[in-house]
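Problem: given the chain below (622 residues), write out its structure.
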Amino acid sequence: MNKNSFIGWTLIMLIFVGFTFYQSKEAKKQMAIQAQIDSVARAEARAQFLEDSIRTAALDSLVQAGDSAAIAAATPAGTIYKDSLLSSAAQGEAQYVTLKNDKVEIVFTSRGAQPYSVKVNDYLTWDGNDLYLIKPENSKYRVSVYAGESISTDDFTFNVAQKTDSSVVMILPFAQGGYISQTYKLPKGSYELENELAFVGMDGVIPSNVSSIDIDWGVNIPRLEKGYKNEKMYSKLDFYYPDEAKPEDLGRGGRDASKNVPAKVKWFAFQQQFFSAILTADNEFSSGDFSVKFYGEDDETNNLMSCTAKMRADLGRGENAKFKSTFYFGPNHYSTLKALGDKKEKVIQLGGSLVGWISRFVIIPTFNFLNRFISSYGLIILLMTILIKLVISPLTIKSFMSSAKMQALKPEIDELNKKYPKQEDAMKKQQAQMELYRKAEINPMGGCLPMLLQFPVLWAMFRFFPASIELRQEGFLWCHDLSAYDSIVNFGFRVPLLGDHLSLFAVLMAVTMFFYSRMTTAQMGDDPNMAGMKFMNLWLMPIMMLFICNNLSAALSYYYFLSNLITIIQTFVIKKWIVKPDEIRAKIKAASSKPAKKSKWQQRLEEAQRMQQEQLKQQKRR
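Solution.
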């Protein structure tokens, strides 16, 4: 062996020995680390065993107490279950099944045996797309129950057991025997989806003291209309106590809200301005928790609101272990909802007791009658406005007659203003005016009372037009959708209070209001006390109404424009041919020359004024 070979082998041996020593040292480090890992694992295993023991003891206590809600909270669902079939179902892939008729198209997912999406036929969104009341992956419907362990149906993939054109049956089997079934039926020509949840052969699986199930439903309702503010204002969550006169609501006016209801509930509704998703129990829900939250106008998901309902329902035994319910996915059409029963038509915001009565028994029947013969909703609104003005014309004439009498006394009133210019003489001036009115047989409230009587009708129209689905996407003149605002100018930026556009119907309404106010304020005279009222009527009210109506439905602004315009014409006609100032002055003079009896109201007013004067004199003496 030469010198070079010897050195080479020596180096190889040294490297081998060094590597062996290094590997031995690293192996010891790895063994120490592994020992630590094993120690931690054993500690975690002991902690998990202790936690499981505590949970098992707690669950046994809850099962004995029959508290299914506490059981569900104490045992969150996982991917491993005591029941082998449940563990398998938890890993299953979802299937999608579709039921449809001429009204709706509903897609179901076998993951949780629940509705996946809902498309309402014969309607489109404001921008012309298919109208999905529930978009894919925006609904979560689940049933929670304790069946030896806490389970929620949305954690499992059901088997599609049967499918026809109008029904689907999905089941979730248990290794211990029995199964959960969800049956959905969609009748022809209906917006209603029938549902039967059944626990078949589950007496040996569900403990006898578990007497209730929890039904949770959460939906993101999308934006469907052009005007965000208007859509938000008329969307909410409703729920109905059995046999009550009307449902309760949450979120009215677009406000986030939540409520716990520890009482029986017959149905609840996730209600968008023109469409609703309603769930009705055949019997009742025993209690519930509701919440509604609204998305911002610039939300990227284009959703309007998030609605959730966490309900509890009684669970029977044996063949009675069923929960039957009905979903409604459809329009907020008054007659359609009324046919469903249980006051569902009252989710439509038509006003309170008096205003709602006028809307339901006067406005809607008149609208429907005219719609039988006229297809243009713009003409229908015009005819309805004329009819309303004709019906209340006696009150209007009476109001103008009273105003004309007041105008005939304007010279005398001006003289009293000159006679009593000081503020401290206001009481004397008022007494003198009342004496003048008494002699002329004028009731100062004669002009106000008829207007007050007209107000419920005006308010009923204000409630009806934005809530009427018949006007949705119906055009008239330059307006493409009477249920939304009409925009003739788009600013491209947002103006505070006004918005990003200008509505022509709102402008026309404000202009006619200005001219009508100008006609009425001319009768107020030069009384300095009326200066503030003049400014408010002439300028402030038209501007304020322009800002309000600019973002509301065009039908409402159009109605107010017509109402103002007809009132201006009516005023001109009444002044020209019906109410004649010269004849009124002659009657006033004839009446003032006769001794007039004081009414009880006038006597009480004069007595109150006399007492007030006495109090002022006593205060000055002090």
